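Table S2 (text version). Query chain:
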Amino acid sequence: MITRILQSELRTAATQYPVVTLTGPRQSGKTTLCRQTFPHKPYLSLEAHDVRQRALEDPRALLADLPEGAILDEIQHTPDLPSYLQGIVDDDPTPGRFILTGSQHFGLTAAMSQSLAGRTAVLHLLPCSHPEVRAFESPPDQLSETLWTGGYPRIHDRAIPAQRWLADYVTTYVQRDVRQLLQVGDLQAFTTFVRLCAGRTGQVLNLSALANDAGITHNTARSWLSVLEASFLVFRLAPWRRNIKKQLTKAPKLHFLDTGLACHLLGIRTAAELWLHPLRGAIFESWVVSEVYKSFTHRGMTPPLFYFRDHKGLEIDLVVEPGDRVELVECKSGTTIASDAFRSLERVNGLLSHTQQWPQVTCTLVYGGPERQQRSNALVLPWHRIDEL
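Corresponding structure-token output:
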């Protein structure tokens, strides 16, 4: 198994807090990362029925058997256990005693905020970023194959055909876990909703239209989407509206965190199909945005990411605002650069130059071609060097 970028942050957090909580989607590699990073710690999986029952029925005895701490995997199955951990780490706040993992961010956040506030660092492990995928033995080397395969580590580590693994993933985890969390009775309606979300990746979210297309109420759509976010399958990219005197879009954009999963839900069965698919550009945009999102998340940072769009259609796919500078990023899946590719970057850069609020504004065009170029108006970055962004 490869070394994950988050590992150094995980080690650091374990020297500062008595508890470290690692969350992320199912099969993102949380258990493997924790056991690699802390090989000498006892390991208990709370997904195992007997361990879970003991944790539910006699949590004090379970924790008493772990005086030096442990890795407690899938902690969301025992939501009361963090409250018992609170007293233990208050009595002995030695850093790094307990490492908790969980797959449902929604429930875990509530448990951590109530019981372990100030006592735990919370980190998120997402599917592999492109630099991590390249570390596997036989990574995809073409753009369409990279987007279509996605970043779930088991696909690459065990050379499992992506479509087979993703089909099992949707059935086993998305439909089972998310439906259980939502207590959804109508599997067909929920599956339709998830597929419709995949069809809107990289697009401004219209929740009412999504609800109508799925045949559910607006409130149901809002609830279901929130749980997809809490399960680390999608995220909403907020609009950027910093002191620019224009009528700007207020709705967020929807992005899937893994383009392989989005392709599977859209029925794209080969990488060649993706190259001809009408949503290729939107899927590429989601891939670029999710790569930048992961680059911050896997370093323990909150991603300062937005997009820009005004009522006349002027749009920038990604606005990165780390501190007092701004980076404008456009995404083009084509292998050649059209003459008008920089138009939006130039116009928004011009708007920002009049505000005099940001001392540094940079422009980057990420595209599906092979060459890195420095133009007078922007850096042109090939997709396979996305880590430079």
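Notes on Table S2: The chain has a mean pLDDT of 91. The chain has 17 helices and 14 strands.
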